[in-house]
Design brief:
The complex is a heterodimer. By secondary structure, chain A is α/β, with parallel strands linked by helices. A five-stranded parallel β-sheet of chain A has the order 3-2-1-4-5, with helices on one face. The longest helix of chain A is centred in the N-terminal third of the chain and has 30 residues. Chain B is mainly α. Chain B is built from two helices and one strand, in the order ααβ. In chain B, helix 1 packs antiparallel against helix 2. The N and C termini of chain B lie far apart (42 Å). The mean pLDDT of chain B is 70. Classes of the chains: A alpha/beta, B mainly alpha. At the A-B interface, helix 3, strand 5 and strand 6 of A face helix 2 and strand 1 of B.
Amino acid sequence: MTIEREQMGANGVFLNMVSNLVSAMATIANKNLPESHMEKHGCWKFIPYSITSAYSLLTVAYEESLKSPLRPPKFLDCGCGIGNIVMLAALMGFDATGIEFSQKIFNVAEILREAGGYPRWSIIKGNILKYKDYSKYDVIYYYCPLVDNGLEEEFENRLADMMRVGAIVICCGCGNDMFANDKRFTGQLKNRHMY
Amino acid sequence: MPRIDSIYKAIDDLQLGMDELKIGNNIMSDSRFREGMNLVTEVRDFLLEVKLHVGNFTLSDIKRKEVS
């Protein structure tokens, strides 16, 4: 254990601790979901995305957003689960919001949000397939929120249509290649990478 | 690292087996079978997560919208 600690350093130890805590909260959030959750609603249960990968992507988006720094950039996580990435975004300086469909997962996110201190972040109980305010955000992030590829495509089309010009999308873990091929969007702000 | 199509097949086989069991027996009324089925469901969900993480689902795009 000492060798592992020496190899990881303090930041590595903290990172592992945070990852373990997020995994534990994911287990709690998913525990009471009905077996039919995925089939009935087409949503994944909450699966945490890598904190380091998210940090790397959000750093690029934040620096890009600061090229026109009128206010803290507004960030939205579509299908945010317990809100761990929303919290990360808030800590990085974004005005951060998450949207979550499942009431049970939303309830856990609310506990985390209320206990989270500052900076504050917000969470909306809602459906990303019906959400109408995508144009309010400067950076929009999602990590493969929908099981069904057809619904995923519907969501991505809606998002691409409704996002404001100049806004940035961070699309993680989706197989549709929607934003890779949409001509309304410029080339990668960071090398496309297997995170 | 398992091949991704092996994972797809494992998920399909598990789902098929679960469906056949449910059709063939009223197993959910028997607590022993119910516990077993819950375990199989967990395995299936775990494999779905593996599929999500190791398939071609893990590429990330970060792009700016330039035109409407």
